Amino acid sequence: MKLFTRPGLAAAALVIAVGAAPATASETAPAPRYKCASSNKSIDDAGYSGPWPDNWEVRVQVCAVRSGATVFAYAAVRWDGPGFYSTTDATIFDGAKVRVQIKQAREGTDPVVVEKDFSLKGRMEAATSGGDRNGSYRTPTISHQAGPDALGDAVLFVDWHKDGHGYRGYDYTGSPTV
Question: What is the pLDDT of residues 52-64, one digit of tens each?
Answer without folding.
Answer: 778 899 999 999 9
